[in-house]
C-alpha cells in the first residue's frame, strides 16, 4: 500500500485499463508485484516531475518501475491503451469513434542541460531544445505526437506526424480536414497532404489588426491540449535522453486525462 498521492488512480479508474496491460508469460516466474502500484508510481514521476531514483520509498524500487515503463513503451502497450481510451472517450461524448477533423501545431520546449540527442535551436521562438508536433481531434484529444529537435521546421514535422496519423488506419477513416496555422502555409505542403492522404488543409491566420490574445477558430483546441500537458511537471521541460521517451510520457499524460473523464 502507498500513500494517497494526487497522481494515483482510483480503483474504478484502474479497472478500466487493467485488462489492457500484458499478462504474465506462461511458464515464467509468477508476478509478485501488482501492476496497479507500478502504474501509480509511473504517474507520480509524470505529475511530480521527479527523477526515477527520486520515487518515494513506499513505491516499488525505481529500477523495477522504470523497467515496466520502458518495456511497455517498446512493445506498444502505452499506445494501445491510449488508442482504446481515445475511442471510449469519443463515444462517451456522443461522437463517432473516428474523427472527421483534426488540428496540428507545434510547441518548442527547453531541454535539460544534460540532454544532447536531437536537440536544436528554434530561431523563431528563441528556444534551444526540442519541438513537440501534436495532432489532435476537435475535442483536443491527441491522435499522434512527434518529438524532434527544435530546429526542425513546422512543415517537415507536420508531414511526419500526419504520416503517423494516417497509419492509424480505420481509427481515422472519417478524417477529411486538418486545421493548421500560418507556419504550415505553402502550396507544396498543402498539395502534398492532399495527394498523399486525401485530406484538406485549412490554414487559420491571426488577424493583423488585432493585438494580444486572439482565439483562433478550430486551432485553439491544440493550444488547450498543450495547456493540459503543463499540469505534468515532467513535461514542463524535456528531461528525457531520447525523444521517444518524451512521446511516451505525453501519451501517458493523455491516458490519465481520459481515464479521469470516464471514471
Unreliable stretches? none
Reported CATH architecture of the largest domain = 2-Layer Sandwich
Number of strands: 6
Radius of gyration: 19 Å
CATH topology of the largest domain, by name, is: Nucleotidyltransferase, domain 5
Which percent range fits the helix content? 25-40%
- Count the DSSP helices: 8
Overall residue-averaged pLDDT value: 93
| Major beta sheet summary | 6 strands, mixed
Summary of the model, kept short:
With 263 residues, the protein is of the alpha/beta class.
Describe the structure.
The structure is a single chain. With 263 residues, this protein is α/β, with parallel strands linked by helices. The chain folds into two domains: 11-74, no CATH class; 96-238, 2-Layer Sandwich (Nucleotidyltransferase, domain 5). The chain has helices at 11-17, 35-48, 62-74, 77-92, 154-166, 187-197, 220-229, 243-262; strands at residues 101-110, 120-122, 127-137, 142-149, 177-180, 200-203. Strands 1, 2, 3, 4, 5 and 6 form a six-stranded mixed sheet that branches. Helix 6 (187-197) links the parallel strand 5 and strand 6 (200-203). The longest helix has 20 residues, at 243-262.
Task: Describe the secondary-structure layout.
Elements: H1 11-17, H2 35-48, H3 62-74, H4 77-92, E1 101-110, E2 120-122, E3 127-137, E4 142-149, H5 154-166, E5 177-180, H6 187-197, E6 200-203, H7 220-229, H8 243-262
Parallel strand pairs: 1-5, 5-6
Antiparallel strand pairs: 1-3, 2-3, 3-4
Helix pairs in contact: 2-3, 4-8
Amino acid at each position: 500500500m502507498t500513500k494517497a498521492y494526487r497522481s494515483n488512480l482510483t480503483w474504478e479508474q484502474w479497472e478500466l485499463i487493467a485488462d489492457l496491460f500484458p499478462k504474465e508469460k506462461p511458464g515464467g516466474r509468477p508476478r509478485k508485484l501488482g501492476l496497479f502500484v507500478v502504474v501509480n508510481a509511473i504517474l507520480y514521476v509524470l505529475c511530480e516531475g521527479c527523477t526515477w531514483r527520486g520515487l518515494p520509498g513506499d513505491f516499488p524500487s525505481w529500477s523495477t518501475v522504470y523497467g515496466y515503463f520502458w518495456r511497455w513503451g517498446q512493445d506498444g502497450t502505452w499506445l494501445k491503451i491510449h488508442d482504446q481510451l481515445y475511442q471510449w472517450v469519443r463515444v462517451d461524448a456522443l461522437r463517432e469513434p473516428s474523427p472527421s477533423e483534426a488540428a496540428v501545431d507545434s510547441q518548442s520546449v527547453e531541454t535539460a542541460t544534460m540532454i544532447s540527442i536531437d536537440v536544436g535551436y528554434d530561431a523563431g521562438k528563441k528556444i534551444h531544445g526540442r519541438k513537440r508536433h501534436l495532432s489532435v481531434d476537435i475535442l483536443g484529444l491527441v491522435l499522434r505526437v512527434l518529438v524532434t529537435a527544435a530546429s526542425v521546421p513546422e512543415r517537415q514535422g507536420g508531414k511526419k506526424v500526419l504520416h503517423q496519423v494516417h497509419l492509424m488506419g480505420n481509427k481515422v477513416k472519417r478524417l477529411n480536414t486538418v486545421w493548421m496555422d500560418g507556419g504550415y502555409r505553402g502550396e507544396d505542403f498543402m498539395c502534398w497532404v492532399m495527394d498523399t492522404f486525401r485530406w484538406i488543409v485549412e490554414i487559420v491566420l491571426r488577424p493583423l489588426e488585432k493585438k494580444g490574445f486572439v482565439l483562433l477558430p478550430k486551432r485553439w483546441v491544440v493550444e488547450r491540449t498543450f495547456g493540459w500537458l503543463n499540469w505534468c511537471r515532467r513535461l514542463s521541460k524535456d528531461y528525457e535522453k531520447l525523444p521517444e521517451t518524451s512521446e511516451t510520457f505525453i501519451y501517458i499524460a493523455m491516458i490519465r486525462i481520459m481515464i479521469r473523464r470516464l471514471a
